[in-house]
Structures are given as structure tokens and as C-alpha cells.
């Protein structure tokens, strides 16, 4: 076996692997014996079929498998031994395999195209970054509590749709005016009419009859992108980036709302069972909850501003030719070459972001341990079940079963790891990135993304 690296001074080199029969023939013979022991054929007892017949039936397949194993092992070992920091996965030049005679195997030379991780000159210059401190005034708190009373109020059908009422609407994503987007969003949602911020849009919806519809720019009629993602469409902020502006809103139901009373039933629905017994206690705890929510939202905004600034300011050369091929050839990406070419600026930015953030984590030795993942999951469970921060999970069969399900869900594990990763990066940015702190009213903060 001979392995060499071609164009080693570039970010897009090629690994050449040359195999001779001695590199794989012994494994082929062992596999033939294994196949022979399992083959059943009329006229022969199991395991007694002549080797020549087994070779004729399965020889090409076995040679193919063993050559693939030999190539894969050689490639992995070479990358580890030479400490090649690669992007994506190696891409094999299949032409040599297509022309190879698997019935009479001999020498084989295969090329693998790889993309190398570029060197990064670290900087924490992210441009002008602001970190907000949201202040909720007493008047804003009363307004928010009033809105919660409406949210948890009793909904009844109504013959008319008024500004203090609610409407069940079908939200249908459009590709263009009058044309529904293929595999686009199509969802029903009950909304409060007063949540519609644009006066013109509100008037159009108020004039609708049942099953009547109007086409509107969704991003102009509600308070923020976060509100649209979480409360209207039920998707993540990242998914929202792929959503069209134009939607058809169809009126399904006209409703009126009888506000919930400020009593223990209401307190339990908002804060969790037994948290508050009086209106004063509720307001204090609800104010603390708002502070926590706004702290999370400002942290997310701060993180995004810093990351966007770093991606813009840190110059990185990428093996673009390789990455375009890799994106198009990787099945799970479900992309064509045309898709990649049309959207490569975004893919390039995403890859660059990942490289920068991973590099910062490694440089500062910020690792994510299993114990941190478990602790974060337990924290999420306590929040879901309205439990105190120090409530034990062990010994509670329901909570332990819930934890087990979470730990068996790879998507949730990935989500949890990303949460921890962001928290670590935010702390790092707070220490090393230059930013200004600014106090802002809650209502003004919510308008920033409009």
C-alpha cells in the first residue's frame, strides 16, 4: 500500500491511495470462507458448497467490500496520523472503481479529494455591539398582566369581530400573489386582534366574513419575528429565515374573550401550581419571570450581534470548490449543484461561522461534558413541570421516565448541547468582546426586530 498527499500546500489537496492484491486478498479469502459456511444451495449441505461456486456467486461482491474496507481504513488512519484537520467528508473519485475488474482484481489507485480547515487569526473585534438591559415599568407590567388575563380568558363565538376580540385564522404561505408555496406553511392559529400592529391590516381582517381571506406581509403586521415564529407559525427562529413574507389569512372563526379573573386559578396557569396566593405576590413573581425572559432575549440578541460581527471581520479562506461538491454530493443535505450554486453565499457564511465558533471554544478550552448535558436536561424538566430549581429528579418515576426519553432522543441531545455551547460563548463574549450596555424599555426592545 502506498499513500501520498497531492497539492499539499492548498486547502483542497488530494489523498492518493494505491492498493496491491496483498493489501486485501487475505481478507477476501477469509470472507469467502465465512460466506461458504452460511450458503445453502440445492444438492449441497449447508457449509459444503465448493469454494469455486461461492467465489463465482459472491466473489465480485466480496472483493468490492474488502477493497472498500481497506480504502476506508487506510484513509482514516492517514488523516489521523498526519493530523489533517478536514472540512466535511473526503470525496472519492469513483472513476477508478468503475473501471476496475473485480472478477480479476489487481492493483488499484484511488483518489480522495479533501477540504482542509483554514488557519484563523483570532480577533474579538465584532464592530459596534450593544447589550441591552430591558426595563419593565409598572404601567407596562399592568398592561402585560391585562394581556395575560385576555390570553387565559374564556373564548366564545361571536357574530362580530371587534378590536378587543379574537379570530381563528388559517395562515397559508404564498410563493407569489395568489399562488400557494409548494410544501409551504399552512396552519391555524387563534390570535387577539389587538396583536395586529399594522392599522391597515387590522382593518382588512376586521372586515372579513367567515372563509373570507386577505393576502398580507406577515412580517409587517406583528410585533416581532420572535412573536411570528413562536406564537403564529410554531417554528424556530432559524426556520423563519426560509419563510416567505407573503401569507394568505383566511378567517375561520370570530370570537370574543372574557378576561380571566386575578385569582389562584389564573396564578396557577401563568406561574405554575401553588406559586402565588395573592395578586401582589403574583405581580412580584410575574415581574421576575419577565426579567428572566427579557434577559434570555437580550442574551440571544447579543450573541447574534457578536457572531455576525466576527463572521464579517475575521477573514478566512475556504476550499470553496471542494465545499460546493461536498454540499451537493452529501445525501442528507438533499441539495442539487444548482441549489448549492444559487445559495452558496449563505452556506459559506454558515460554515465560516461554525469554524470561528469551534475555534474559539477550542482556544479557550471550553468543553461540554456529559454531566453538563444531564444537568441542563434536569433544569429543563423542572421548568416544564413548574418545579423549584433544587427539586430532585431521582426517586420520581414520572420525571425519571421523562429524563430517560430525553436522553434517548438524539435531536434533543443536540439541542441541549447547542444551548450549553451558546451559554459558554456568551460568557466568553462578555469577557473579551468590546460592547456598550444600554437600558431600554420593554416595548421599545420588542420593536427592534420589526
> Overall mean pLDDT score?
93
The figure for the number of domains is 3
The DSSP helix count reads 16
Net shape:
elongated
Q: Low-confidence spans: pLDDT under 50, at least 5 residues?
A: none
Distance between the termini: 61 Å
Instruction: State the CATH architecture of the largest domain.
Output: Orthogonal Bundle
Order of helix and strand elements from N to C terminus: EEHHEHEEHEEEEHEHHHEHHHHHHHEH
Radius of gyration: 30 Å
Largest sheet: 6 strands, antiparallel
Number of strands: 12
CATH T-level fold name of the largest domain: Trigger factor, domain 2
**Residue share in helix:** 40-55%
The computed structural class is alpha+beta
CATH C-level of the largest domain: Mainly Alpha
Structure description:
This protein has helices at residues 25-38, 51-81, 95-98, 138-151, 199-206, 218-221, 225-233, 237-240, 264-271, 279-313, 320-329, 337-363, 370-384, 397-407, 410-432, 442-445, and strands at residues 2-6, 14-19, 86-92, 108-116, 130-135, 154-157, 166-176, 179-180, 186-192, 213-217, 246-258, 436-441. It is of the alpha+beta class and 450 residues long. β1 and β2 (14-19) form a beta hairpin. It is elongated, with a radius of gyration of 30 Å. The chain starts with a strand and ends in a 5-residue tail after the last helix.
Amino acid at each position: 500500500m502506498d499513500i501520498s498527499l497531492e497539492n499539499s500546500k492548498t486547502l483542497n489537496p488530494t489523498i492518493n491511495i494505491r492498493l496491491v492484491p496483498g493489501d486485501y486478498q487475505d481478507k477476501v479469502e477469509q470472507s469467502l470462507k465465512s460466506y461458504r459456511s452460511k450458503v445453502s444451495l440445492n444438492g449441497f449441505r449447508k457449509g459444503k458448497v465448493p469454494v469455486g461456486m461461492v467465489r463465482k456467486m459472491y466473489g465480485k461482491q466480496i472483493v468490492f467490500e474488502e477493497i472498500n474496507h481497506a480504502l476506508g481504513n487506510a484513509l482514516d488512519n492517514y488523516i489521523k496520523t498526519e493530523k489533517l484537520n478536514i472540512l466535511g467528508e473526503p470525496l472519492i473519485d469513483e472513476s477508478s472503481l468503475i473501471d476496475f475488474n473485480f472478477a480479476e482484481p489487481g492493483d488499484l489507485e484511488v483518489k480522495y479529494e479533501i477540504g482542509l480547515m483554514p488557519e484563523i487569526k483570532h480577533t474579538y473585534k465584532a464592530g459596534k455591539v450593544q447589550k441591552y438591559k430591558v426595563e419593565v415599568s409598572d404601567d407596562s407590567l399592568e398592561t402585560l398582566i391585562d394581556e395575560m388575563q385576555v390570553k387565559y380568558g374564556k373564548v366564545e363565538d361571536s357574530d362580530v369581530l371587534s378590536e378587543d376580540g379574537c379570530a381563528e385564522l388559517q395562515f397559508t404561505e404564498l410563493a407569489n400573489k395568489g399562488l400557494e408555496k409548494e410544501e409551504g406553511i399552512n396552519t391555524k392559529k387563534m390570535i387577539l386582534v389587538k396583536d395586529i400592529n399594522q392599522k391597515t391590516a387590522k382593518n382588512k381582517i376586521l372586515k372579513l366574513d367567515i372563509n373570507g381571506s386577505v393576502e398580507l406581509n406577515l412580517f409587517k403586521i406583528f410585533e416581532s419575528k420572535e412573536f411570528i415564529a413562536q406564537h403564529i407559525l410554531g417554528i424556530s427562529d432559524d426556520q423563519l429565515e426560509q419563510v416567505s413574507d407573503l401569507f394568505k389569512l383566511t378567517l375561520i372563526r370570530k370570537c370574543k374573550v372574557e378576561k380571566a379573573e386575578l385569582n389562584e386559578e389564573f396564578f396557577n396557569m401563568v406561574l405554575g401550581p401553588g406559586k402565588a396566593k395573592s395578586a401582589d405576590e403574583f405581580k412580584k413573581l410575574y415581574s421576575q419571570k419577565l426579567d428572566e425572559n427579557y434577559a434570555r432575549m437580550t442574551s440571544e440578541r447579543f450573541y447574534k450581534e457578536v457572531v455576525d460581527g466576527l463572521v464579517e471581520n475575521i477573514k478566512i479562506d475556504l476550499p470553496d470548490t471542494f465545499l460546493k461538491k461536498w454540499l451537493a454530493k452529501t445525501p442528507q443535505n438533499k441539495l442539487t449543484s444548482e441549489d448549492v450554486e444559487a445559495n452558496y453565499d449563505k452556506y459559506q457564511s454558515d460554515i465560516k461561522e461554525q469554524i470561528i465558533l469551534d475555534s474559539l471554544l477550542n482556544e479557550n478550552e471550553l468543553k461540554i461534558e456529559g454531566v453538563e448535558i444531564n444537568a441542563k436536561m434536569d433544569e429543563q424538566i423542572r421548568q416544564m413541570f413548574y418545579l423549584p430549581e433544587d427539586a430532585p429528579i431521582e426517586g420520581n418515576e414520572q420525571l425519571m421516565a421523562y429524563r430517560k426519553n430525553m436522553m434517548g432522543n438524539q435531536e434533543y441531545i443536540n439541542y441541549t448541547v447547542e444551548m450549553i455551547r451558546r451559554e459558554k460563548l456568551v460568557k466568553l463574549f462578555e469577557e473579551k468582546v468590546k460592547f456598550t450596555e444600554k437600558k431600554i424599555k420593554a416595548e421599545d426592545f420588542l420593536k427592534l426586530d420589526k
